[in-house]
Design goal:
By secondary structure, the protein is of the alpha/beta class. The chain has helices at 2-13, 16-19, 32-44, 55-64, 83-93, 107-112, 129-141; strands at residues 24-28, 48-52, 69-75, 99-103, 121-124. A five-stranded parallel sheet has the order 2-1-3-4-5, sandwiched between helices. The protein is globular.
């Protein structure tokens, strides 16, 4: 009963605008639609959002905004620099970077690419706004 009580209270527990509490998320995906949807969802929940369309610009953005970025939402499969390489380069800049992998692969298969890379979380595409916000909240609380 306690779990269902908590779930029932959750929507009222914090206003949508306060959910992100100004945290900054870097969204990295080569698909414009994914970037746009994630951007709009995150912004509506009070997050600040930066975007990049591939791994190299993501690493450059992370380096430029190193002290500001609280989490990275990183696509696995991109045409020029994939998520694995981008993850490694971001980790060299900041070993404590919170990286959330997003991919169409199932989690076990996707994590095989990231052996020992220490991902903060995983979200499978397609995801809905509630799943995205839940994963992000969990990652930012750690």
């Amino acid at each position: 009963a306690a779990a269902s009580d908590a779930a029932a209270e959750a929507p009222d527990a914090s206003p949508a605008a306060a959910a992100g509490d100004g945290a900054t998320v870097l969204v990295v995906d080569d698909e414009q639609i994914v970037r746009d949807v994630a951007h709009d969802v995150l912004e509506s929940f009070g997050y600040s959002v930066l975007t990049a369309d591939d791994g190299a610009p993501a690493v450059a953005c992370y380096e430029e905004h190193r002290g500001e970025i609280d989490a990275v939402l990183l696509d696995l499969t991109m045409p020029r620099m994939d998520g694995v390489e981008a993850c490694r380069k971001i980790r060299r800049l900041d070993p404590r970077a919170r990286i959330i992998l997003m991919t169409g692969y199932d989690e076990q298969r996707a994590r095989q690419h990231f052996d020992g890379e220490g991902l903060a979380a995983f979200i499978q595409k397609p995801f809905n706004p509630a799943q995205l916000i839940e994963v992000l909240r969990r990652v930012l609380e750690t």
